[in-house]
Amino acid sequence: MYSVLLVDDELLSRTHLKLLVKWEEHGYTLAGEASNGREALQFLEEGAVDIVISDIRMPEMDGVALSSEKNRRYPDIPIIMLSNYDEFELVRGALRNGAVDYLLKHRLNASMLLETLDRAKAQVIEARSKLREPGQIRPRADQLHALREKFVIQLLSGYVKSEEAEEHLRLLQMRLDTKHVQPVVMEIDGFQEIVASRGLKEESILQFAITNIVEEILQEYDKGIISHLGNGKFILLLSFTNTKSKAFIDQFIQGIIDRSSVCLKKFVKVSASFAIGKPCVSILEVGKSYEQAVEALREKFYLGKSSVVRGGAAKFNTSPMLSLDPNDELRLIASVKSLNRDDVSEILERIFSQIKGNMASPVRAKMVFSELISTINRLCKEYHLDMAELYDQGEVPHEVLARLETLNEIKAWICTVFDRLLTMLACKKNENLSISIQQAVHYINHHYCEDISLSDVASAIAISNNYLSSQFKEEMGISLTEFISDLRVNKAKLLLAEGKMDLKQVSQQCGFNSYTYFLQVFKKKTGMTPKEFLRHDA
Q: Fewest CB atoms less than 10 Å from the CB: which of 79, 156, 449, 466?
């Protein structure tokens, strides 16, 4: 079917044209109607028109101006001109701008219209033989980009036949051969969190920026493309027709990955993980290689963000469903109730070490995390603690678990929640805790990420520095400064595990007014530097 746009300011004229022939029986369909040239150009912008039939005399923009502008923007779309007038100058102007023919309305009949439409269709067919994509007339850059993405998805889904692949690559101007193709899957780390924080508009801008950055890198290589697949995933397809050296190919791919990673962090502040698929002799094999690469990318759960893996089945343990050891759960509950922070930390460390050693699939591992959350919630109910205060910024635990992508992120988050639980429980259990100290703890829990000191807390609750210092230590069993430092270091662990900030940014976000002081406090509390902590956690 060839789509036709009717352009006439007179409704009766447009209705007459619509009823003059049985459009679909002759291979045509009506794309729409416009009452002047400006409206017609808006239709053409949408790219769904093959042929235009337009009146010459119209308000705002007449047919001659429309044909001139159409000829400039869309020279491959033929236009047929209509008029009630036998005016030579108008006819000559329209024909000079590429009109297929000039028809007088009062002489127009079905056979004349169909004959002219068929001549216009012949022009369309001739133009399509030179086009970049079958079925499209001179696609704009954004249309061409969308068509390329559609082709890649069809290719990965196995819907492209051998004889079609090379022709599509040529028509879509994709710099890729059909032999010896290497797929590489790129996944933006923390994509769901990015979407949640930035919104759909920012997501679209980010996707565009990422594609452009990697395209710039691939421009230096003669045979390579990138295509967006959705949900934070992209695929790079590289052909190595003239290169047989595996060492060279591996080194080349690693170079592209390294450069892409650096540029993404520098220009759009995101990190990415990569899975290198198995090389394909034919481009038609990339679908299977892609699926294997996506499966291998699940290992990011244990490897952490910015990881690089090779295609193949993920090396997860397929043993029976993983669950929280009942003895560990009992000891954990007992340690929380006795406010023994060291024991709680030790038990959680053991649980996460067992998960990592077991190499259970992320789905199975998250069953244990759900059990830990259930344990926390049961303790909250038992001691009538406010869950809204326990979970930061009204977050929903199971939504957080679904959003976090790596074991290190989940570990840091759960440890932070347990630490907050211990603090709240300490306040709740101590019946002799004064109103002033309750207020102090509440203020610190909400402001410890700021540059606060003993005097700031004292001023906020309207008591003297000396009284707050001595009273806090007496009732809480820890100095106020140490209490703030513990909260900040736990927050730092969480941010380090997320991997979104450098060390100085983490220091600032956790309320440390000096980077050097942050390093000193962190090592004192954890026994290692932040960099050592990252290596140990990995």
A: 466
Question: Structural domain of residue 501, as residue ranges?
Answer: 326-537
Series of mean pLDDT values for 10-residue runs along the chain (538 residues): 90 88 89 90 79 90 86 84 63 55 81 89 76 48 75 88 84 88 94 74 81 90 88 93 87 94 92 94 93 91 91 70 85 87 89 89 89 93 86 80 89 91 80 81 86 92 92 87 88 78 89 90 89 73
Helix (H), strand (E), coil (C) string for 248-296 = HHHHHHHHHHHHHHHHHHHHCCCCEEEEECCCEEEHHHHHHHHHHHHHH
**Cα angle, residue 165 at apex, residues 162 and 170 outer, rounded to 5°:** 145
Q: Would 133 be classed as within a structural domain?
A: no
Indicate the pTM of the whole model: 0.60
Q: Are 365 and 301 in contact (CB under 8 A)?
A: yes
475 and 521 part of one domain: yes
Cβ-contact 56, 68 below 8 angstroms: no
Residue 5: closest CA among 67, 66, 50: 50
Q: Which of 97, 128, 159 is the last residue of a domain?
A: 128
CA dist 159 to 151, 152, 284, 287, Å? 9, 10, 9, 10
Q: Return the closest-CA partner of residue 30 out of 66, 61, 5, 64.
A: 5
Does some domain include residue 402? yes
CA dist 115 and 398 (Å) reads 66
> Which among 274, 284, 271 has a CA at the least distance from the CA of 235?
274
Domain at 376, CATH number: 1.10.10.60
Burial call 267-305: b when 16+ CB within 10 Å, e when fewer: eeebbbbbbbbbbbeebbbbbbbbebbbbbbbbbbbbbb
Residue 318 lies in a domain: no
* Within-domain flag for 266: yes
Rounded alpha-carbon distances, angstroms, from residue 486 to 137, 357, 483? 65, 28, 5
DSSP state letter for 189: T
Residues 6+ apart with CB under 8 A from 326: none
Looking at the structure of the chain, the number of domains it has is: 3
Structure tokens at 454: 């003993």
Could you tell me the two tokens for 26? 């002759």
Q: Which tokens in the block code for residue 451?
A: 């540059």
Same domain, 349 and 447: yes
